[in-house]
Design brief:
The complex is a heterodimer.
Chain A (H helix, E strand, L loop, with lengths): L1 H6 L7 H8 L6 E3 L6 E3 H6 L15 H8 L5 E4 L3 E3 L8 H12 L5 E8 L2 E8 L10 H17 L3 E7 L7 H20 L4 E10 H4 L8 E4 L5 E2 L3 H8 L10 H6 L5 E2 L2 H14 L5
Helix pairs in contact in A: 2-4, 6-7
Chain B lengths: L8 H20 L4 H20 L3 H8 L7 H8 L1 E5 L12 E8 L2 E8 L5 H6 L7 H16 L4 E7 L6 H5 L2 H14 L4 E10 H5 L6 E5 L3 E3 L3 H9 L5 H8 L3 H6 L5 E3 L10 H19 L4 H13 L4 E3 L8
Parallel strand pairs in B: 3-4, 4-5, 5-6, 5-7, 6-8
Antiparallel strand pairs in B: 1-2, 2-3
Helix pairs in contact in B: 1-2, 4-13, 6-8, 10-11
Classes of the chains: A alpha/beta, B alpha/beta.
The complex binds zinc ion.
Chain lengths: 283, 325
């Protein structure tokens, strides 16, 4: 299996590097929203966008995430040709898609593809919260379903990083149905005993948390991420009581048995490689 | 009178006039029959005009109508020998979801239904049809049981959504819904889902992954409530009517989008005008679809369902000369 992969490496390209280069931070300095420390942007980036003082996890873009995970930054992207249409002729939707494309240099809110991690072949999906808040419309659903189908064909593990506000309102019920489409594709993986690891990053809410991101054989969250089904404001209006301070955080979910692990970003790659190794050795 | 919605007022007024004339006829012994006939014809014409051209918002009002029949009624009318089965075996019994076994036209089936409740007391007991995780887990347990014994599954969807609350989050509302989506995709029995009233987002879909998705004529099914969408879009929940139009949430819209397989006609004015007839129509159409699914093998049923959801979605490709890979 590994041999096949290396033979194919000519096809691999370091696509996301370009996109990463274009994401020049506004300033040389950044202020940590949690501890208030002024940090050098360069340093923050070197530290996988984690605050050196308090461990706050800054937002990571999809290209940055992929670069931080795959061997030598080599990544073969799937379905990069898929772009959103405006099936409902929803007010301002096309305009907003265009704006986000220009702003992020991405075509949609997720990048899928394959690469290796310490030599282990993996299929990766990484959502980008900058694009329509990482919401799931037809393209996101289709890309995830196709990635899961490829995982079954190739028998490669699938690691999916969620960062999403939920289903994309502007595509109406079509978005809602992507929850079923992606979950059905994961059922195929499940029945074929192919490993699915879900990584929940800030934020993972609504229709995304209520579909594929909760369906990992192993569910891992980054520290301090907002994860939940219903929005905080909606819950406050319903229950009319103060919500716990840590409500809907990774730590809250872990405490209530909804997660396997909370892993800091700087340890995440090692943890994933260990999991990949444990699923490669068979008796 | 409270049975009438604002847009039905012209019909109501005509009907009242007809009733007055009829009363006159008996009281004063004057013959108004020709006047009554004219008004009757006018009323019929008006009904066809109003009910034939309902706006999205008017449909939402019908779907939410206080007298609209709920799942309890349909279960009673459609299934024979129904036995309700309770509990998720982990936490509790959520009465926002009814589950059980019974017969549809002689064939044993498992029924899963969201129930919003009849009167105030019942509504509170059923949490207005907003399920908690234990509701979805009860549904899952009973669907797994159906799968084990080869029983078809019929689900009735009627909820504003899954319950938004602290305990629901603690017990894993997301996971409960997500697991149902995945497991329903894998069951080797026919699954038919009917949206009877409100299809509120993920909370509705949590019992909604079927080989067939049917919708009552005035039901709606949406990714977000019209009020919620209006609040996000225009920071103004009172613009729900506009949001409802933009979201394309009617049965007719969803059929055009390739999501709904068949629309079940309602009696003129809505299901509540003749709930008996409504139940009969649903039964008839359920039987038709079940008959078409029964000959399929277990793997064909799973594949049929997979294909149904695979096809849903619209996008385009920038690749002109080569495929996506
Ligand atoms: Zn800090």
């Amino acid at each position: 299996m590994l041999k096949d992969l290396f033979r194919k490496q000519k096809k691999y390209a370091t696509i996301p590097t370009e996109a990463t280069k274009n994401q020049v931070p506004e300033g040389i300095m950044q202020k940590c929203p949690t501890c208030g420390t002024i940090l050098l942007s360069k340093e923050v980036e070197k530290n996988e966008k984690v605050c050196k003082v308090c461990g706050y996890h800054f937002m990571m873009t999809a290209p940055e995430r992929i670069q931080s995970l795959v061997d030598d930054g080599r990544f073969f992207e799937y379905d990069s040709d898929l772009i959103s249409v405006d099936p409902l002729q929803f007010p301002d939707y096309q305009k907003k898609i265009k704006q986000d494309m220009e702003k992020t240099d991405l075509k949609e809110a997720i990048i899928t593809g394959e690469g290796t991690m310490d030599g282990y072949p993996v299929i990766l999906g990484v959502m980008d919260p900058r694009f329509r808040m990482g919401s799931m419309g037809s393209v996101v659903g289709e890309k995830i379903a196709r990635a899961a189908e490829r995982a079954v064909q190739k028998r490669f593990p699938f690691i999916l990083f969620s960062a999403s506000g939920g289903a994309r309102m502007q595509e109406g019920a079509l978005s809602l149905m992507q929850m079923a489409k992606t979950s059905a594709a994961l059922q195929k993986m499940n029945q074929n005993q192919v490993l699915f690891v879900s990584i929940l990053t800030n934020p993972t809410t609504g229709g995304v948390s209520a579909s594929f991101s909760s369906l990992g054989d192993i569910n891992i969250a980054e520290p301090g991420a907002l994860i939940g089904f219903a929005g905080r404001r909606v819950i406050e209006q319903t229950v009319r009581q103060k919500l716990p301070d840590d409500f809907q955080t990774s730590e809250f979910l872990l405490k209530h048995g909804q997660l396997d692990l909370v892993v800091p970003r700087l340890e995440l790659r090692d943890t994933l490689v260990k999991i990949l190794e444990l699923h490669t050795i068979r008796g | 009178m409270s049975n009438y919605l604002p847009f039905e007022k012209p019909i109501l007024e005509l009907r009242q006039k007809i009733d007055e004339l009829k009363a006159f006829t008996t009281e004063k012994d004057i013959d108004f029959s020709s006047e009554i006939d004219t008004l009757e014809a006018k009323a019929k014409h008006l009904e066809t005009k109003i009910y034939g051209n309902l706006t999205t918002w008017q449909k939402v009002q019908i779907a939410r109508h206080a007298s609209r029949p709920t799942s309890v009624h349909y279960i009673q009318e459609i299934f024979q020998d129904f036995i309700e089965l309770h509990g998720d075996r982990h936490y509790g019994d959520d009465s926002a979801i009814i589950g059980g076994i019974g017969k549809l036209n002689g064939i044993p089936v498992t029924v899963i239904a969201q129930e919003r409740g009849k009167d105030t007391k019942d509504k509170i007991a059923r949490n207005f049809g907003l399920p908690h995780p234990e509701g979805y887990r009860k549904a899952l347990r009973l669907m797994q049981q159906a799968n084990k014994f080869g029983r078809p599954i019929i689900t009735f969807i009627d909820t504003q959504g899954a319950h938004p609350g602290i305990e629901a989050e603690e017990r894993g509302q997301s996971e409960a819904i997500a697991r149902n989506l995945r497991e329903m995709a894998g069951f080797e029995v026919p699954i038919i889902c009917v949206v009877t009233g409100e299809g509120g987002s993920g909370g509705a879909l949590g019992i909604g992954v079927g080989n067939r998705l049917l919708m009552l004529e005035h039901a709606y099914y949406s990714v977000i409530s019209p009020e919620g969408a209006a609040a996000i879009l225009w920071r103004d929940a009172s613009k729900a009517q506009e949001a409802a139009e933009a979201l394309k949430i009617t049965a007719q819209d969803l059929q055009k989008l390739g999501i709904v397989d068949e629309i079940i006609s309602e009696p003129k004015g809505g299901a509540h005008r003749n709930s008996q007839l409504m139940a009969q129509t649903i039964e008839h159409i359920l039987c038709k679809h079940l008959t078409s699914l029964l000959p399929l093998s277990q793997s064909e049923l799973v594949e049929d369902r997979y294909q149904k959801f695979s096809k849903i979605g619209q996008f385009s490709s920038t690749a002109v000369f080569e495929g996506s890979r």
